[in-house]
Amino acid sequence: MTPSRSRRTVAIVRPPGDSFVRAESTHPERDRIDPERARAQHAAYCRLLEAAGVEVVELAPDEAHPDACFTQDPAVVLEGRALLGRFGALSRRGEEKAIADVLGPLLLGGVAPPNPLVQLIDAVQPPGTLEGGDLL
After folding, report:
1. What is the rounded distance in angstroms from the CA atom of residue 78 to the CA atom of residue 76?
2. Direct distance between the N- and C-terminal alpha carbons of the chain, in angstroms, rounded to an integer
3. For residue 38, which of 9, 16, 24, 72 is within the disulfide window of CB 3.0 to 4.6 Å?
């Protein structure tokens, strides 16, 4: 019997930490970042995802990486394959590991139920850089 190949819609999210006030931003009001408000907005976003039937996998805040709440950036998953990016901004390097640690089990069959349609295929190597948010 052939195993079921049903699709899952999964969102890997991470709430902003207190360090979010140091996030990289070119916004004119970047000095007015409010981590509590950002966390409330993040929680509302997660509730909307869940209400839409999306499986939400929430990571803990990452105080070492102020921008780590932007989980669309470390990897790109498309048509059954995942590519880990490599940040151009030195302050963001290291975020990729947490996403890879989740993608492995989630997509390849570890702790979370596997998605047989997705494989972690590669990672961008130096000197290349890639941020998922730049593609989407």
Report:
1. 6
2. 37
3. 16
Ordered structural domains, the chain, with CATH: 10-135 (3.75.10.10)
Per the structure block, which two tokens stand in for 131?
């941020």
Nearest CA to 62 out of 24, 14, 118 is that of: 14
Q: Give the model confidence (pLDDT) of 96-114 as tens digits.
A: 888 888 887 776 554 444 5
